[in-house]
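Hi all, a correction to my earlier message: I attached the wrong file for Prolyl oligopeptidase. Here's the right sequence:
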Amino acid sequence: MTDYTFLEDIDTPEALAWAEKWSGESVEKLKSPAKDALEARLLAALDTDDRIAYVSRRGEKLYNFWRDAQHPRGVWRTTTLESYYSTQPKWDVLIDVDALAEAEGENWVWKGAVVRSPERDLALVKLSRGGADATVIREFDLATREFVGAGAFELPEAKSSVTWIDADTLLVGTDTGEGSLTDSGYPARAVKWKRGTPIEQASVFFEGAREDVATHAWRDSTPGFERIFASRSLDFYNSETYLETADGLVLLEVPTDCDVIVKNQWLFVNPRTDYAGIPAGGLGVLELDAFLDGARDFNQVFEPSASTSLQGLATTKNFLVLTLLNNVSTEIVSVPLADPVAEPTRMELPDHVTAHVVATSPLDGDEIWVQAASFTEAPTLLRAELPGALEAVKKAPLQFENAGQETRQHWATSADGTKIPYFITGHFSDPTAHRKTLVHAYGGFEVSLTPSHSPTRGIAWLEKGYYFVEANLRGGGEFGPEWHSQATKLNRMKVWEDHRAVLADLVERGYATPEQIAIRGGSNGGLLTSGALTQYPEAFGAAVVQVPLADMLRYHTWSAGASWMAEYGNPDNPEERAVIEQYSPVQAVVGVEKRIYPPALVTTSTRDDRVHPAHARLFAQALLDAGQAVDYYENTEGGHAGAADNKQTAFVESLIYTWIEKTLDQQGSI
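and the right structure:
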């Protein structure tokens, strides 16, 4: 039996040669004028200057990060509100990442900046090599527009967390050697780092345990409510939050599965199981001082229902803003921070859209920015000064032909009788027409999938008259914590039962035949599609498996894998391992003499330091050795996103959509 352990080494010459050879063969196989034309059109759509420049406020300036054809790596820039409202805003560039990368000989990818607030004079800029999660952190002076020289705060590449205490002091979590990281590769302690001193000599402010997922410390700089907090993420869904007081750090004593948010004089709780009269998925509030004195008589801000869940929480200076889902349709409401239990005010949104809060700036007032979009309607950016109404500010161009396209919502019935919703978008003028259908799903980590707009998907798929499906499987967060917890650990197989039910429902309703269905998913969604391939290959005609988890018997030993055991279970626990063995894709692959799988395209990134590329490599190799039809592509950059810039995104997406269409055509001719 061939030894493939060399594929577990991320970037050794042997592993890279294996990936380069197979990737090159896949690219060569899919070369065509149509593929080139699609790639060019996708890149033009991604680079167009007509896109919305999304902004966030810091003081008098609006900040934006922007990529286009002239700046593929991007520029960090600012403008004023007045200029932003004009048809041609005047942008003031702070950092040109392309120029920086060229000058330094680095493949920098922008990962954001932590700006000192409310002063807005200094920033800690995060730069990634090739799109990895790990970043280099460098101090930048916003007044001089230059990186700080002597005495600057700088951190080498690591999965770091940083926050400002004052101009000369940071709270930092980073890799400083033995004991500084958790088993998941994230900071295990936070230190107070004084300017001009080595990070190794910084005093420990807070420390968790090595088996935790991560620790984190931060400062709330709200005037009059300045506080410092620390937290231990015990696992993905359980944590402890601490508040610095005159007597030292004090644990905020709530159940570990209860999220805690402190804002001004209030402590808000969002429990995953019922707590202190607040139901699972609800939101409760109590004065922080009263809580610290022992009170637990929380008042209810939001009560979930069977159809309605809390999806997001934002604040302005004087308002609390809640994003809700009602049967996977968005609602946004606000309540005054002075009286959080007051009757909420519903914000008027355009019809038939999904909306989310893009940005607020609580230190600067009650401004709120909201994006609204749908599968077929391009995004609109709206702005309000609460309690005022939202008004449209920018509208993105529609970059594909959407005439006659509609979206419907259906409910499939899973194996245990649970109703599973999904959206299908396309042309429904001919009820007897079967069409190629692309099904996307995720089903994990309490992630909610809502109707979203993608020019890439519209150009490459919907415009051609095909169907697109977004499935809301258990394991997601569309209906609150219980919808998620129903499909974790010992109940993980329910995710595939839900997925299979959606595929069967599409066929039963006459939208497609199994041979016309392609399934696609990335990361946890890649686990979903690779598992579907080995469990019910007769239900579809093609599978796209992107940056997947696939060797689930060893996932907890690679990269950040240990942090996900609250989701999947521990392979070293016999009871949980028995369930994992039922679906771990690498081990489940069988030869064509036993069962023929539809073709698969497996993709990953060499620079993915979240989900180890060995998952994709080993799964693809297992399929190949089994005689199954499989293609493979590994991008040398991109991190867990799979692509580091618009050009790479256009290339990878054109490759994937060309492969899907070609494969389904071949399946239809068999």
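Sorry for the mix-up. The chain is about 20% helix and 35% strand.
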